[in-house]
Amino acid sequence: MKTMTTTFACISLISLCSFTVVAHAQSACKRVDDTSGPLPARSAQALQNATPEALAAFRQLSLDPPRGKIVDGHLTLIDNNPWQIAMIRAVVPEPTRSQFCGGSIIANDWILTAAHCVKNSVVREDPTRVEIIAGSSQYAIGGERLKVAAIHTHPRYNQATMDNDFALLRLQTPMTKGQIIALADAKTDLRDGTTMCVSGWGAISEGGPGAIDLLGAEVPIVSTPVCNAPASYNGDILPSMFCAGKKEGGVDSCQGDSGGPGSAVINGRTTLVGVVSWGEGCARRLKYGVYSRVSTAAEWIATTLGR
Ligand code: 4AZ
User: Fold this and answer.
1) Distance from the alpha carbon of residue 253 to the mean position of ligand 1, in angstroms
2) Does any ligand 1 atom lie closer than 6 A to the CB of residue 253?
3) By CB atoms within 10 Å of each CB, which of 63, 133, 139, 298 scores lowest?
4) Distance between CA 72 and CA 304 in Å, rounded?
5) How does 115-150 read in b/e, with b if 16+ C-beta sit within 10 Å?
6) pLDDT value at position 203?
7) How do residues 213-251 score in pLDDT, each as one tens digit?
8) Rounded CA gap, 43 and 272, in Å?
9) Contact at 8 Å (CB) between 19 and 25?
10) How far is the CA of 38 from the centre of ligand 1 (A)?
């Protein structure tokens, strides 16, 4: 039945067809087909509302469908990751949206992202230079576009070592879409081998194009001693970080996913444990994805939010 409706959607929406097939073929944190409701209808509506730029991107993707996604993830939906937001350049006006990082909703007017997403030539830690999109599976269309009132970069962020790669964005107005994710705290026991779900609109291969639809991937958390081995990061993994991925590579977050969520089910609760931070390339053998360890920032976050 599902395949039938998918096939109908393919007639007019070639690119979505290729995505849907991929989603069927993969196991995942929460795949697009885990979500109830008529996907073809939603997709058709999204395309009706799409900007010319978004439609051109869809067409391009249909000519060159992604094989690896996020890298080697699967199509997901904002409904499955409602805390995910996209960071876009404020200087580029609607209908164009220029996405460069992800983030997570941790309160109705606060986003947790990576420090390197705000301390760069695009944002320069200036809240007027960044806006966020909440509540859309396709950052380029739909959802709500919100302005940022203040940026708080972690006071011990170190650009050279990527230590404490965290930043908080306070929004000018609360979000009306999206959902808050629970934060890991100092007591959170993050065991090696735990499956983490990472999502974003970042590159679908190292140096490759970004994704139009939100993609997610499952990556196992790797111990710091393993990740600090000479063939991996040779001691560069600090206590404010952890690694996730497979020894053989192949699945990973990548450029543009930065700042976005790494979530895991801890004691039955979906919890934000990591922030996409860095890595040597994407999905390379032994070069795991590196994430900021949210539990180490819990106090700073609580203090900054004033609660
Ligand atoms: C980046 O350049 C980046 N493989 C983000 C994540 C990873 C690598 C690079 C992890 O923003």
Assistant:
1) 6
2) yes
3) 63
4) 36
5) bbbbbeebbeeebebbbbbbbbbbbbbbbebbebee
6) 97
7) 999 999 999 999 999 999 999 999 999 999 999 999 999
8) 28
9) no
10) 33
Continuous H helices in the chain: 2-12, 14-25, 39-48, 52-63, 224-227, 298-305
258 counts as catalytic: yes
Q: What is the token pair recorded at 307?
A: 């609660």
Single-letter residue type at 196: M
Probe ligand 1: pick from 159, 276, 290, max atoms within 8 Å of CB?
276
Q: What is the pLDDT of residues 184-215, one digit of tens each?
A: 999 999 999 999 999 999 999 999 999 999 99
Contact by Cβ (8 Å): 256, 139: no
In eight-state DSSP terms, residue 10 is H
Active site residue 165: yes
Query: Which residue, 45, 275, 255, is CA-closest to 138?
Result: 45
Measured over the CA atoms of residue 265, residue 266, residue 267 and residue 269, the dihedral's sign is negative
Q: Which two tokens stand for residue 65?
A: 């469908």
